[in-house]
Specification:
By secondary structure, the protein is mostly helical. The chain contains four helices and no strands. The radius of gyration is 47 Å and the shape is flat.
C-alpha cells in the first residue's frame, strides 16, 4: 500500500516537473529531460588580445592630422558647369536687337486679323460640338430601335471593342516633309573639357 502511494506521489511530482522544464529543450545538443544532463559543447577559443604598438598608433594619428590640415588649407577645386555660364561674346551690348516700329495701319491690320481668327476658331468649335451632339443623339435613337427589335443584337452592339486601343494615327504637322529631301549626315566634334582633381 505504501509502495503504491509512493509510486502515485512520484508520478505526480514527475508530471508536475515535466511541463515546467519542457520549454528549455529547443536545441539539437540538449539531452532529453529524462536522461543525464550534459555540459554545453565549447565551439570557439577565446580571442587573444592584440599587442598595441603605441608608436605606430601615434604616428597614424599624426598622419591623419596632417591630412586634415592640408585639406582645410586648400579647398577642393569645383568643376564648373559650362551650361550655366554665359559666354562673354553673347552678353555684349552691341548685340541687342531692336525691332522696327510698326506703322499704325499695320498694327490695326494685325489686330483685325487676330479678331477674325478668334471668330473663325469659335465658329469652328461650335460646329464641331453641334456635329458630335447630333451623332450621339442619332446613335441613342438607333440603339433604342435596335432594342425593340432584338435584345441580343442590342447587347452585342453595346459591347466594348477591344481592338480600338492602342489607337495610333499620323496627324498633320506644322512643317510637312519636303518630297525628295535627303537630310545630310551630321558631324559631332567632342569639345568636352576633362578636369582632374
Amino acid at each position: 500500500m505504501w509502495a503504491a502511494a509512493a509510486r502515485g506521489l512520484r508520478g505526480t511530482q514527475l508530471s508536475s516537473w515535466l511541463p515546467q522544464r519542457a520549454p528549455l529543450r529547443g536545441s539539437h545538443w540538449q539531452s532529453s529531460l529524462l536522461e543525464f544532463r550534459t555540459s554545453l559543447p565549447v565551439r570557439a577559443q577565446p580571442k587573444k588580445k592584440k599587442k598595441v604598438d603605441v608608436k605606430k598608433e601615434q604616428a597614424q594619428k599624426e598622419r591623419m592630422k596632417k591630412k586634415i590640415k592640408k585639406l582645410e588649407k586648400a579647398a577642393p577645386e569645383l568643376i564648373p558647369i559650362e551650361d550655366f555660364i554665359t559666354p562673354l561674346k553673347y552678353s555684349e551690348s552691341n548685340r541687342v536687337r531692336s525691332l522696327p516700329a510698326l506703322s499704325p495701319e499695320e498694327s490695326e491690320r494685325r489686330v483685325l486679323l487676330l479678331k477674325k481668327w478668334c471668330l473663325f476658331k469659335q465658329k469652328q468649335d461650335e460646329a464641331e460640338k453641334k456635329a458630335i451632339k447630333a451623332l450621339v443623339e442619332s446613335q441613342q435613337e438607333a440603339l433604342k430601335e435596335l432594342r425593340l427589335e432584338s435584345e441580343e443584337l442590342y447587347q452585342a452592339a453595346i459591347q466594348r471593342d477591344e481592338g480600338l486601343f492602342p489607337f495610333e494615327r499620323d496627324g498633320p504637322s506644322y512643317t510637312p516633309p519636303l518630297p525628295g529631301y535627303d537630310p545630310p549626315e551630321g558631324k559631332c566634334l567632342d569639345i568636352t573639357k576633362v578636369y582632374t582633381q
